[in-house]
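Bug report

Summary: C-alpha cells for Probable inosine/xanthosine triphosphatase differ between web form and batch submission.
Environment: batch mode, default settings.
Steps: 1) Submit the sequence below via batch. 2) Compare with the web form result.

Sequence submitted:
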Amino acid sequence: MDFKNKKCEICGKKAEIFLFGRFLCKNEKCIEEAKKLSMARHKLRIVAVGSTNPVKIEAVKEGFEKVLGAVEVIGVDVISGVSSHPIGLEETYLGALNRAKNAFEKVQCTYAVGIEAGLIKVGEHYIDIHICVVFDGVNETVGLSQGFEYPKIVAEKVLEGIEGGKIAEEISGIKDIGKNIGLIGYLTDNNITRKDLCRESVIMALIPRMIKNAHLY
C-alpha cells in the first residue's frame, strides 16, 4: 500500500499504517481512537474477501454479521501464491494469508479475509479443511473449519497435481461445485455445505477480535 503523501486521519502526522479503515501513524492513542470510531460506525465497516467465489463471500458476510455486526463485503480477485489445491497446514495457511493481505492492498477496508481449502494428512487419511485468515493491516487472526475425509480417488488425483474441484465435478455431475455446495455438500446430501465450512472458519478466526476476548490475545 502506498503511504506517500498520506497523513494520519486522527492527528495529521505522516501515516505509516492502514488500520480500521483509516490511514494512521503508529501512535497508540491514534490507533485506539481509530478503533473506537470503527466500532461506533460498525455499519460502515468494509470487509474485503480475497476471492470472487460467491460461496466465500456469502460465508464471510454471514460470519462477520454473526460475530461483529453489519458489514459491507467486497470480493476481490487476488492470487493465493500457493498450488491450486494446497497440501498440509502450512501451505493452506499461507494461501489464506496471501489472499487476505493481497485483498487488503487492493481495497480500502477495515478487514481483509482469505479462505483457503487444503488437504491435511492424518495417518493414511487425507482430511479436507478450510483455513481463514482475517487481516487488519497489522495483525492476522486464524481459524479452521471442521474437517472431513477426502474420498481416496479424489485425494490421489490431488496428489498428482489435479485440482480437487475438477474431480468433484466429474463425480457429482455438478458444474462449478466449488462455487456451490462443494464436495462436502454432495457427500452429505447438503446437510453440510462448503459455505458452512467457510463460515465456520471465519467465525473461528474472529474469536480473538470479539471485545470480550481481546485481553486474552
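Above is the batch result. After comparison, the two runs are identical; trailing whitespace caused the diff. Residues 1-40 form one domain. The chain has a mean pLDDT of 91.
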